[in-house]
Amino acid sequence: MEYFVYGRDRPGAFELKMSLNGDHRSFMDGYGKLLVARGPTLTGDGDDAESTGSLHIVDLPDAEAARTFAYEEPYYRAGVFESVPLCRFHNALGRTMWDFTEAVDGCGRFLVITMGESDPAPVTSKHMIVYGELLALDGEARIGRAAMVEAPDREAAATLLPVGGGRTEIHPRRFGGRPGAMPAG
């Protein structure tokens, strides 16, 4: 079962987060082959962008293992995060971010989250890196959708995921992990 874990940074915690990068990466190394996606969300698209959160989609046996992953993580334990939404993830594309091969020059990467009801029809686009439904931890109730997408800008990213009656968030992001490393598997 796959789980969506998005730690939203607490205001003013950037320096603390940066000081814990080594501990965070060591913790994530233990989950390497189980990770579907990982990486920071950012304030903007430039090299000087600061982190606003940490996204992880991970394949784990059950909700208890997902809670351990989310709440034993060094950033969480040190108080970096303001909140950590945790839910099931139904991976509609059935791939990891490392399987994405359709990259287009000049495009940025974004995390798009839509909460609430939306058209249940599947979304298809060559710009979807990872995409799926967000479900309650018990897997019963559909609560939204999430996608890592490639797009020229925030506005174009917003058009890739249909919006229903809920709210939509769009966060610039980049692939995470140790430079040049892919998960073992």
Q: At the first level of CATH, what is the class?
A: Alpha Beta
Task: Please outline the major beta sheet.
Answer: 9 strands, antiparallel
Q: Specify the CATH homologous superfamily.
A: Dimeric alpha+beta barrel
Computed structural class: alpha+beta
Number of strands: 9
Q: What pattern of helices and strands is seen along the backbone?
A: EHHEEHHEEEEEHE
Shape: globular
Query: How much helix, percentage-wise, in residues?
Result: 10-25%
Number of domains: 1
Q: Distance between termini? A: 17 Å
| CATH topology-level fold name | Alpha-Beta Plaits
CATH architecture descriptor name: 2-Layer Sandwich
**Integer average pLDDT:** 86
Q: What is the CA-based Rg, rounded?
A: 15 Å
Q: Regarding quaternary structure, how should these chains be classified?
A: single chain
Which consecutive residue ranges, at least 5 long each, have pLDDT under 50?
none
Total helical segments: 5
**What proportion strand?**
35-45%
Give a brief description.
The chain has five helices and nine strands.
Please give a structural write-up.
The chain is of the alpha+beta class and about 180 residues long. The protein has one domain (about 1-170): Alpha-Beta Plaits (2-Layer Sandwich). Helices cover about 20% and strands about 35% of the residues. It has five helices and nine strands. It has helices at about 15-20, 20-30, 65-70, 75-80, 155-160; strands at about 1-10, 35-40, 50-60, 80-85, 85-90, 110-115, 130-135, 140-150, 170. Strands 1, 2, 3, 4, 5, 6, 7, 8 and 9 form a nine-stranded antiparallel β-sheet that branches. The longest helix is centred in the first third of the chain and has 9 residues, at about 20-30. The chain is globular and about 35 Å long.
